[in-house]
Amino acid sequence: MKSVTDLKKIEKGVAKLVEAALAESGGLLRLAPCWVPRSFLQPGKRLKLHPDDLYAFGLDRGGIDERWFASTTPAANENRTPDEGLSYVVHAGKRFTLQQAVADCGAQLVGKRMWDKYSRWPVYSKFFDNMGPIPHHMHQSAAQAKLVGQEGKPESYYFPPQHNNVGNNFPYTFFGLEPGTTKAQVRKCLEDWNKGDNGILDLSKAYRLKPGTGWLVGPCILHAPGSLCTYEPQWGSDVFGMYQSLVEGRYVPWDLLVKDVPKEKHRDLDYIVEQLDWESNVDPSFKDNHYLEPVPVADTAKDGWVDRWIVYGKIDGKEHFSAKELTVEPRAKCTIKDNGAYGLICVQGKGKMNKMTLDCPKLIRFHEMTEDEVFCTEDAAKAGVTFENTSDVEPLVVLRYFGPDVNPDMPKLGAYKKGR
User: What is the pTM (predicted TM-score) of this model?
Assistant: First the structure.
């Protein structure tokens, strides 16, 4: 097949193409890989991207350490390409963004309730893959982000075993601040920005990361993610503020602290400190209130498949997103009904999803098409999607994430402890 960029790009009026694709596949859209670089990070080399393509955007843009799934959210990078962060639908030798498909088809894709409330697909997920840790940072709340014309960003983490055969340099994540930390101590770290390591991690605590587990993190909570490859369902925004001045000997520019702060507040240290949700950051029960382990949806192992919740729970009383991991044993088949649309990535094995092939690639070239990513419409999800493992030896494993208020009956935080 041609590379994705060789396909004819359709920028407007894609409704008929979408309808044809849905009819052919059984309510599904095939998505091309969406790669995103970060200039201030070092790729972890576990995205299955060919090593020759790690700097395909150019060395000045940084290495590719992220792959975004079913994204209609532009990446907030400096010197970005016009469509950076946007997933492309591929059908009949043509390509168009999922963003345009949702704009043209609305409720047909994401469902009436979500379309009426948001007029878009308001979430996305990604693989985040780095060689080492990234700076201690936070994501602004909805109110804070609104001041700069953006949206806030709650997020979640799951560490898929298939992408974590090696932990890389630092598989530990710092979360929040130690109980008893004062705002004056954090302010002093900001004052010391240009003196070297500003010491913000001295005020925090690191947790060992374990493949097959995860975390739920609200806005305004400091976190310095470690070096496991992470699956991250999150709100459709790319706001952040870095509070750490030096990471593994690399300077973090002040601009990355105030990128999503009103210009008149760029040197207002008190304002920057007050952005933090203090109660959540110094929570003495932080792990109990944020840590996740998978919870089976039902006892179906005897039938050759298991569906598990991997992201669940509310943030500030709201359901922003959720995610499940489906494992289908060799030659088994199942039909899964869900409450709403979802983005899907196949992380192991091969098989079928309705009329569409699923095949987890071993190695991907930049701009090369794959058969591992799908967007499922709400109608198809509610009707039931049939998954079939066509392998004789290997499980088929897929991750799928959902938008807001789709799964009100999902488990509550801490549900994994039941029965222990």
Answer: 0.96
